[in-house]
Specification:
alpha/beta, 5-stranded parallel sheet, 25 helices, 24 strands
Amino acid sequence: MSFQHILIVEDSLTQAVKLEYFLYEKGFRVTLASDGEEALGALDGKDIDLVISDIVMPGMDGYELCENIRNNSKFNAVPVILLTSLSEPGDIIKGLKSGATNFVTKPYAEDFLLSRIQSVFKNGGLDSNQNAMQEVAFEFQGEKHSLKADFGQVFHLLLATYENTLLQSRQIDEANRKLIAREEQLSSVLASMSAKIAVLDTDTKLIAANESWRELFTFGRSEVKLEELDFKEAVAASGCLVKDLDALFEGVSSVARGVTESYSLEFAVDGKHEGESLWNMLEVTPMRGGLGGAVASFIDITGRKEMEHELIKARDTAEKANRFKSRFLASMSHEIRTPLNGVIGMTDLTLRSDLTADQTENLEIVRTSANQLLTLINDILDLSKVEARMLTLEEKDFHLSKSLSEIIKIMTPQATDRGLVLSLDVDKNVQNIVCGDEGRLKQIFFNLVGNSLKFTEQGGVFVQVTALESSADLEGSSLQVSVRDTGIGIPEAKQALIFESFRQADDSTTRKFGGTGLGLAISRELVEMMGGEISVRSSEGYGSVFTFSVRLKHGTSEISTLDYTDVESGNANNDERPCRILVVEDNPINVKVATSLLKKMGHSVHVASNGLEAISFLSMLDVDLVLMDLEMPKMDGFNAAESIRKGDSGYSKQEIPIIAMSAHAMAGVRDKCEDSGMNGYIAKPVQYTELHDAILQAVNMNRRVPPFREEPNKKMKAAINKESALDLYQGDELLFSDICEMFVTDVPSDLVIFQQALENNNAVIAKRTVHTLKSSCAAVCADRACGIATKLEKALLSDELGQVQGYLDKFLIEFSRIETELKL
């Protein structure tokens, strides 16, 4: 018995193969054709029992194929099943006219198709024996038709149409049941949610809403139907929102229309109790499916708002406590430093006198103890300022290798006395001139090297400085410092603790080696503030390696040698002749210390107890320098310095050097001193060498570069003080000539950079450039230009932009004078 042979005509290969596999499983032989022409060729060459054809195909469609089969006497008796969606009633008429045997609606169930195939084969003999064709004329949908077909064909087509209609009806009923169930599920979900939710169409009309939404926006209007509600009208009528209604509706509408992806708004409504506010957040998101619309959710955020309020209160309380702590520590620091100033100052002074060996040893112990106490105070204050985020980092150009070498130089005697090696190796790729906080970098360096020396009894401490090339860019680069020692080492379990405050690897080390456990904690905080990291690798009994990295900006120019006065070099410019000094101080102990130290240096001293006395005394005394305390009754040091600079003590004393002396530890004190017109700053307790160097530098710099001063009705001085310049360069006229040539070449380009920075509001480049201009002017002893550049820099740092252009114009005029003089 041969299997029945079916020809499948389908342009979709996926659909054709799927149907082929199904029919093959049911015992049929199958041939595939992708279009009508290929199907006619298969019918002509093969014994086909049934054709199943799609209607919509490129080229010859299913109706044309069916007509060609009926018009060919060779295979006109082959039954044809058309696969169609029957989307139009006219499809039935086309099928009857074309001679189709049966219809199957897409999408079809495979069992349903199989029943149609079996029905066609079963009734095929009946259809073939009824040759009596009848012509019927009828009207369908307003059009007249004429159809010639046998009764069996018409009957089976009408039966197939009826079955398809029943099938579609059952499918529609099933879809409706699922839709109703889905709507009930959606309603249940909406009802169970605490958020107030409304579903909107593209015109912001309500499609659905849960009960909590109704309670808020349709309260007292239960008769209102959702389909009649407009979102805008409902929200406006509720009175919940009285501000920015137009903006709210525009935001909701833009999401519903698919213009924007989301919209949100926080708002408060009055609660049931007086003074009660209930906070809600409106979140609008688009509907999925491509039909547009949006989901508007009103979420109660009252609890979150209350928590935010509590957090703000807690933050304010913590900040208030931090401010109180900072003021307390600053005040206590000032009070502790005042007597400590007397202890250290008088001890230092006494040690410079003739003493017995025992007396010297005893006083050395006193000085060491006092210095340890001072270190502890400084560490606690530094840590407090870092934790309170009150510590700020400076950004100034400095010599990196010179700065680190100074620390090594200071600590070398300590290493030598203990028989240790102390070395510094700076890689050649490390940039020499960098921009950052030199003091804080030296503090980190000092802490790590000092720790290594303290815990090393034999061997040495080896420091290596390298540049991290991978992090270099146009703005700056990262510097890595490794401090390796051959000391006692740190147990692995304790290595993570040493960077915490008041912690050391072993509590016994405090008794044996000293220290508070704050140095590494402060170093870690400073390193992180500089954009780096700090770590340690150690092996107990073999030593440790501390490594840290910091981010430093590129320096803009070579720093003038005028910025680094070497007191010990014997330079002829370092005039150490005795000075007449006015000490402004209200504390008797500090007066005694300062007076004794100054007299020991060979200076003569006058004393004023407050700022007012200082202004009065200065107008009558002929002095070279003022040492000014900051906190005094009647008038403090800041106001006194400002008054002196204004000329309240006389025009001749307006530019006298003023050095601040203070035990004040609050952040920004140095900057405030500079803003008040002071030339230097010494922290109490005052050390002999620090005071000596500060006085020497202030006096010599004052003589070397007289500040800019407007002197009306007087003959204009030379733009360049050639006498001072030759004195500065030891009479080397050729060197001075080369420097002047560089000055005339470099300054115009610096001025262009400065003006471009001003136009682009780039304060960083502007400040660096004007600092370069000031140093360049000082290098050629252009006193007046240097003074103008100084005032220009101060105006820039104080954001006094109105004065910047005025000083810039004056500088351009003065530079023109310099160029004229150099060409003569």
